[in-house]
Give the backbone structure.
Amino acid sequence: MTTPLVQVEDLTIDFGTVRAVDGLSFTLEAGAALGVVGESGSGKSASASALLGLHRGTGARVTGTVRVAGTDVGAADEAQLRALRGGKAAMVFQDPLSSLDPYYTVGDQIAEVYRVHNSVSRRAARARAVEVLDRVGIPDAARRARSRPHEFSGGMRQRALIAMALACEPRLIVADEPTTALDVTVQAQILDLLHDLRRETGMGLLLVTHDVGVAAESVDDILVMRHGRAVERGPVSEVLGAPSRPYTRELLASVPRLDGGRVGGPGPGAAPPGAGPLLEAVGLRREFGRGARRVTAVDGVSLTVRAGETLGIVGESGSGKTTLGRMLVRLEDPTAGRLRYGGREIGSLPEKDLRPFRRELQMVFQDPVASLNPRRSVGESVADPLRAAGETDETRIRDRVSGLLERVGLDAGRYERYPHEFSGGQRQRIGIARVLAAEPKLIVCDEPVSALDVTTQAQVIALLAELQGELGIGLVFIAHDLAVVRQVSDRVAVMRQGRIVEQGAVDEVYGSPQDPYTQQLLAAVPTLDPAHAAARRATRSELAAA
Amino acid sequence: MTGFLLRRLGGAVFVLLALTVILYAVFYVAPGDVAQIACGPRCSPAQVAQVTEQLRLDDPVYTQYWHFLQGIVAGQDFSTGTGVEHCSAPCLGVSYQSDQQVMQLILTKLPVTGSLVIGAFVCWILLGVGTGVLSVRRRGRVTERVLTWLTLAGTATPVFVIGLLLIIVFCSTLQWLPSPAYVPFTQDPEQWAWGLLLPWVSLALIESAKYARLTRSSMLETLAEDHVRTFRAYGVSERAIVGRHALRGAVAPVIALSALDFGSMFGGAVLTESLFGIPGIGRELVHAVKVVDLPVVVGMVLVTGFFVVLANALADMLYALADRRVVLS
Amino acid sequence: MSEALLVQEAGAAPLAAPASGARQFWRRLRAQRAATVAAAVVLLLFLAALAAPLLSALAGQDPDTYHPDLVDSASGGVPIGSFGGIGADHWFGVEPQTGRDLFARVVYGARVSLGVAVAATFLQVVIGVVVGLAAALGNRWVDQVLSRITDINVALPLMVIALGLLAVVPPSFPRPVLIALVIGGINWAGTSKIVRAQALTLKSLDFVSAARLGGRGRWSIARRELLPSLAAPVITYAALLFPVNITVEAALSFLGVGIKPPTPSWGQMLTEADTWYQSAPTYLLLPAGLLFVTVLALTVLGEGVRTALDPRAASRLSIGTGRKQRGERTKERAS
């Protein structure tokens, strides 16, 4: 019997008074792939860092034993630890831009790491860098090795980081949320690359992710974590197919699925079919910058939103979907095109003439941290639209705000609290309460759940659907996540490079996508069924070749 | 990149022009009886009339200014009472008290100030960056605390206080050093260096504190960034991380600040020069202010402004070059 | 660049201290021992300056009376007695040559030094906040014009212009007022640059967009959403400027073009001490030491204020963990 590649026994990590990991034990055999899945705060990243001894010198208290590729990480001296790091086990981090030094070329950085573990000349190390960059699919690697990180796209940077990990032929790769910062199509490419590399080199893989789908596509075994403890461990098909623990079941139920149905539905307030549109955009266009540096963010978009219905807008980063959303509520001025609200042209109205419409067109923002003023109590933030509308009776304001806070599922007694005392999901609820205070007719939600954990995400989506059914408002739901958009939308528009490439009823667009880009997007979404993963991988390579 | 440089230079020229307008307004228009002030208190009415004629003070203000600007760009002639003297291209006027051309006066003082500033610059960069790096290398230990307090003390001490103390200790009490004096480099390099040693050291002690803080905070900021974690996770040693990756992050701000300091010091390390009796631009300016020699004052302020504007533009460009991530806009 | 440096120097990220009230600020300030001591020293100095007439009366002295009997005219005016004539009557000794009481001169000098610095800092902050806010909130042209004016302001070399101005302004104009005006009027660019940069960052944040959607006007947004968040960086920067202004006043007086005798000022006392350091060293050490202590205390206090207002920037300065502000700021909003 051989010793496992990774052996973790009773690992406990404390950051001050916070216990991040609590008695975690697991093993990983050589060449195997384990996915560690959990929501934020589950201790998954802290555990991954412990494998390379990265908590040393940070003030965190680590107990228990961790053995990686024959090294006892807890007991190893500096030299042994350095030999382990990168040499036997290499780490791939989440944000590829900030994970590379902006001042040095990508090739030099890989060469520097290579020379730490191999006594070779500078020239030989550079050659090795080019070799691994070529291996991870960077075209024209010899030339691109001389570029700095910011000259690479996000996907290329992540490839470069993987190349750095490969450079010293480690026996284990620890990937901490390696695709979270990437678009879904790029994510699929990176996961496919990791899959191929593993088959080719026989490396072990420990993949840390919040996204069950990502794990399902890439690993053999899954370890579900919560509050620093292991909840469940087993082969992917078992854990995802027949979860034995309630938490795992809850987690899986919260994951939005491409083939799932609509949450909620048109309520009694929905406009009768045939009623005129609430908001109509025709040939909407927005440019930034002037002269040679002009960029067209939104390029001739036409769409309509009716009362009581939800229009989903889906697209990858840089597709112009946020700019479009901000134009729809006139936070951004259209460069050209028409925007009609309730039959009136509002696209070119100056700020002061917009006043009567301001409150009826509202927006829920992506970042629950930046969307509330940290220096004002949440009650004051929610009361804002009321005061702006001229309400001066303090008791009435307080009653109304308390009612709204309760409506979105918060304790009305927390009126005087400040935003930092709330969790991300709660802050998003406060944002929704503030929007409701304005009594809007239409709400644009810009990635309202992308910063939230899946279970919280499901709750916020349910709240939005409920409110829509109750109030009959029109919703525009902007997101990068195709499954989420499917869950909430009646109709959907797919955006790419500032244009809408496909638009229609949800079932039609998802069921039989016409545009090749839509097909590519749908093929890239990770599936929860590992049996499908291989087939979908094949579809992707076909689509890429086409 | 070229576009950025051109825009930046264009901006610098604009600021310089605006500077001449402001200086002209403040010094030649606002005070009222300009001819008397410019000429000096001991001038006879005839001389005052001559100055009035020379500065076109009877013309409308904008004509006067135009004449002033013309002198700078194209040069002009001055009547000295006995004859006519030509003052060539960057002409900043003539002192009515010493009959010397202001530009020539500045040119004779420039090597003196240059010797002081360049020597001090070398000292303070070495000392400041060295201290910064050392305190980062020894962070969390006693060395760091000591260095931090020394640096704070350095920023808190006015240069004339430390200069006075140095003179008292090294020249008067211990008598290890000769009293500071300026000997031209071309005349005797050894004497030049000895004479300037104390001024260099006092300037460097004060200035280096600023650089130590900047180096330290930039390096610590870099060390808190994610990419440092990457290199730690790949077994790169702490020494290499501090010396290679963290120090690189401090290069751009240190270069930029150097350019700025260099620029403003050329306008005269006024205090240092006055204190040590070094006959540079700064001391000349103080003298001119005390005797109210208006053309000399305006000329020197303008030249200083020129150096500062130039240094600002240079600092921006160097920063952009050293920090490739800066979006050039 | 200068902008980047200045903002880096003033530190505070706009969202740094969440909802910290004055109470939290004091708590964080008191938690730092060095800052607490510095605050006590500063308080003491201010009290001494305010109570200068009272203190002099208490010592039974005034700053302007000559005591020719206390100096040795044979040696050119060296004070009689050890340590510059320190004794029960003259707590800090007497001035060489004139025999004026040094304790009285020092406390009256504190009035001038601190008063000028307070006024100058106040001017710098007011001008800087107004210009910076207007540039950030106004349209493109307003921003362009104000930013150019700020550039010009940066190009004015403070010491040199101050020297020049002091030469042409008639001597009848009160010097302390003039010096405060000159420092405040020439050196506000830093404040305005910081305010502009921070206001622009804040303006792009979602809570400001939300306020717009709530139906509020531009000035109401500036007052309720922006100003409270700007207070931290502005206070921090002002705390760093204050000791600099003290030094500038002292330097001008030292050069003999600032505060004119007989008004006492620390810088001006130093000039005169320059010629007396061998025969009457206390006369030199007194103003030099006071200047050093004052500026050091103010600098330490400034650092403490920064730490109390922006714990993240502070942790970067003291132990070096913390923020990724640079990356956060440059992140593109459009997606």
Q: What stands out?
A: The mean pLDDT of chain C is 75. The interface with chain A takes residues 15, 17-19, 205-207, 209-216, 218, 220, 224-225, 228-229, 324, 327, 333-335 of chain C (CB under 8 Å). The two ends of chain C are 28 Å apart (CA to CA). DSSP finds 15 helices and two strands in chain C.
